[in-house]
Amino acid sequence: MNMVEQSYRAGYLPDSKQVKEIFEYSLEQAKEARDEMDWYGKVKEKVLNWL
Fold first, then answer.
1. What mean pLDDT is predicted for residues 36-48?
2. Alpha carbon distance 14, 22 (integer Å)
């Protein structure tokens, strides 16, 4: 939920290509992650660095 709250503070809106890339990264990590926490950590890091 913290990522959703922080999204309101972003200084710009991502375009559809950027959103698609995040979803594709999420799917890729779901296949490679050891478990759900590993997946969540990787996706969270990517999103926080992206915003």
1. 93
2. 11
